[in-house]
Amino acid sequence: MIHARMKGICLVLTLALLSLWSMRDDLLAFNPVPKAPSLDFNRFKGQSESGQAVLSQDEKINIEVFEKVHPAVVNIATTTLEMNFWLQLIPREGQGSGFLIDRNGYILTNNHVVEKAQKMTVTMADGRKVSASLVGRDPSSDLAVIKIPSELVKVVTILGDSDRIRVGQKAIAIGNPFGLSHTLTTGIVSALNRGIMTEDGRQIEDLIQTDAAINPGNSGGPLLNSNGEVIGVNSAIYSLSGGYQGIGFAIPVNRVRDVATQLITSGKVAKPWLGISGLSVTPALSEALGLGVKQGVLVVEVLRGGPADQAGLLGGNRQVIVGGMRLLLGGDIITHIDEHEVSNLKELGRILDRLKVGHTVKVRVIRAGRPLDLIVRLKERPSSAG
Hints:
- This protein is of the alpha+beta class.
- It contains 9 helices and 23 strands.
- The chain has helices at residues 2-22, 24-30, 40-43, 57-69, 111-114, 253-266, 283-289, 307-311, 345-353; strands at 73-83, 89-100, 106-109, 119-123, 129-131, 133-138, 143-147, 170-175, 183-197, 203-210, 222-224, 230-237, 248-252, 272-273, 276-281, 296-302, 318-322, 325-329, 333-337, 340-341, 360-367, 370-377, 379-380.
- The strands form 5 sheets. It has a 7-stranded antiparallel β-sheet with strand order 5-4-1-2-3-7-6. It has a 6-stranded antiparallel β-barrel with strand order 8-9-10-13-12-11.
- Strand 21 (360-367) and strand 22 form a beta hairpin.
């Protein structure tokens, strides 16, 4: 009985399968297998009816600047020699960015990229590799110039005017972060006149702050405006992790232009010098000593034969002890240089850094409680003066 029932079930299933097989053409006609070109996602090209991709104005600027400038940006690989634990000299590899500034083959970069380098290899935008030689470097500004053969130069960058930069304007960085060649990042100019302390303890002032992503390897690359003009040289980042955190710094191009000119023409940068040692005047110090001014620079000593000495500035002439410190008082108090207010020694240094050797400046001092203007011709700082 059961066996007969199973035979009946198998017969019904067999007839059903035969019926479906006979209907296969009708089923396939209802759900046909499409060909690849007929699929919607293969027909849609993601472009406008004209066939061109729709780009915003900001995107167009980024593309135009990159295409214009990136052929002049290079990767710089360096080899330095260091002493290991066993007092053996071992090579260490480093890398950074740079950009061509002159058709004679001059490349601008950071001092810390090429400092102590025994060998420098430049990789061009088209992949060519060439050895470079050092022209000169300036640790105080963290700038350096290296050189490659002029016949390899096809495109150079255009240096803009950093005095016209405004907070909020577009900033574009091109460099080689982590060795990733010709990377473009964008942001804005976040702030101006920033000062930072470098890893080797040098203070660099008047920097451009930007939120364009700058990472290790970007050092020495250009910071650009919307016209593709260089407005600064990417130099450092502020980071708790060692990577990008939204705060990068660039050296303004107007300072870069002056430093590069001196390095190329003389191999060094001449620093202007007053020839004094001094002390920052604070309200508390002024009140304690009865100086009569709330800020400025108290001249403690005038170096014989220096610019200040030849102009008639006076140093201290009597010793006093203040808070356990022995000070020379009675000297002039510098309050202005060419109408620029001098609030302390740091500000005095910033003002002098903007000037050049040979410039004549008006120095206003307070002497015996009265203002006095003196004319000082700046000289080059002797190497012994630091």
